[in-house]
Specification:
This protein is of the alpha+beta class. The chain has helices spanning 15-22, 32-39, 48-56, 63-76, 79-98, 108-125, 132-135, 138-146, 154-181, 188-194, 200-213, 215-231, 233-242, 245-256, 269-274, 287-295, 307-310, 324-341, and strands spanning 9-12, 27-28, 105-107, 261-266, 282-286, 346-347, 365-367. Helix 3 (48-56) packs across helix 9 (154-181) and helix 5 (79-98) packs antiparallel against helix 6 (108-125). Bound molecules: protoporphyrin IX containing FE.
Length: 369
């Protein structure tokens, strides 16, 4: 069943408890699939695209269904495949930075972060930049289907069905045009089709899901800029000089993950008793808070050993992020190249609240210098 109004929620942020819950498969993600099956019994054509999407959405699937799809998707997100497509992505990153107007005031989110993260994921998945403006408005609606912290209303399901239907057909059109114009390009679509990983229809549904999941990269990038601006020029220069680009991203990740909270439902009596809750209740796992606790009070010079294993930014356990390597490469390139081209840039607004995938009306005004 989907999340009901009766379910209680407990907030968890101690790193130990977060770790324990995320590694225990009896804490399940919230599945919209069961709800849709109940709701559409006898009317199998209703929510055709939404069902296709939820069935391919790893955030919403549990058990065997989740494992087998994840195993296949991971084949594309390995370092060797991502390294092979990275030269194209690096070009996109550099072009987006080179096109920024020096000595001017801009909203870095609108003019750079959203663009660079979208263009690069389009390239990786096999979509063309041509449809950029058309894809963008769907993203916020899609986010609703990705994290089910709130029970959805029937009208939300209809809205999601319409959105996914439109997106599906737009992507289909784009892929047809794009493949004939650049047949040699390696990307998720060609990789999946060449290896016969998924049917054409399911590949497109996975692309829709990956577009949505990839949004976290945008928020994480915004937070990294925020942290670097808040350091001030001198400290920032030292930090960037004394750390490799990998270390820069690795250390910033403790304070910059774009996913603040994820949810799990308790499914066994034993666990319910241990956590003083009931079966069906939810735990809100506060990744951002847990990470601050892990890194302690010494930001950016953390001496924590093997930080990546302790970092909660990409989640933990069977639902851990598959876009981690891809995102870190982009973040490294973005930060090092941006501050090389604009070393004296500074933030104009006093914004110091982190950006999360749930944030609205986001702005990050910056003087490019
Ligand atoms: C810095 C950027 C990113 C951050 C901080 C991030 C964070 C996360 C987190 C916390 C989860 C776990 C969710 C949960 O357990 O409920 C997750 C899962 C996932 N992420 Fe990312 N993500 C990022 C970028 C990306 C990108 C670029 C992609 C793909 C293009 C991606 C694809 C996925 C997928 C497919 C999952 C689901 C894994 C599963 O349920 O098994 N992520 N991400």
């Amino acid at each position: 069943m989907g999340l009901t109004n009766q379910a209680k929620m407990k907030s968890i942020h101690s790193p130990k408890a977060c770790d324990e819950i995320l590694k225990n498969k009896n804490f399940e993600v919230l599945s919209m699939v069961d709800f849709l099956n109940v709701m559409t019994e006898g009317t199998s054509n209703d929510f055709y695209y939404l069902k296709l999407f939820t069935g391919t959405n790893l955030f919403l699937t549990n058990g065997e269904e989740h494992l087998s799809a994840k195993k296949k998707l991971k084949l594309f997100f390995t370092p060797s495949v991502i390294d092979s497509i990275f030269p194209h992505i690096k070009q996109i990153v550099r072009r987006c930075i080179d096109e920024l107007p020096a000595n001017s005031e801009i909203d870095l989110l609108e003019k750079f972060i959203i663009k660079v993260s979208s263009y690069s994921i389009y390239q990786a998945l096999g979509l063309s930049k041509k449809y950029h403006d058309k894809y963008l408005p769907y993203m916020n609606i899609l986010l609703k289907a990705l994290s089910l912290s709130q029970p959805l209303k029937l009208k939300d399901y209809y809205e999601l069905e319409r959105t996914i239907d439109k997106l599906f057909h737009l992507i289909e059109k784009d892929l047809l045009e794009n493949q004939s114009s650049s047949p040699g390009d390696m990307n998720f679509y060609t990789f999946s089709r060449n290896k016969e990983m998924f049917s054409r229809e399911k590949t497109i549904a996975h692309i829709i899901f990956l577009l949505g999941a990839g949004i976290s990269n945008q928020f994480t990038m915004a937070n990294m800029f925020l942290n670097l601006f808040n350091m001030g020029k001198e400290k920032r220069e030292l930090f960037l000089k004394n750390n490799s680009s990998f270390e820069v991203v690795d250390k910033l990740l403790y304070f910059s993950g774009g996913v603040e909270t994820i949810y799990r439902r308790i499914t066994t009596e034993e666990l319910a008793e241990k956590f003083e809750m009931s079966v069906g209740d939810l735990t809100a796992i506060e990744l951002a808070k847990a990470n601050k606790e892990v890194a302690g009070k010494c930001p950016f010079s953390t001496t924590v050993k093997s930080p990546s294993n302790l970092n909660f930014a990409f989640g933990k356990g069977i639902h851990r992020c598959i876009g981690d390597y891809y995102s870190c490469l982009i973040l490294e390139e973005v930060l090092t190249y941006f501050f090389k081209v604009f070393p004296n840039s500074r933030q104009l607004s006093n914004h110091d609240e982190p950006f999360y995938t749930t944030s609205e009306n986001r702005k990050l005004f910056v003087l490019l210098n």
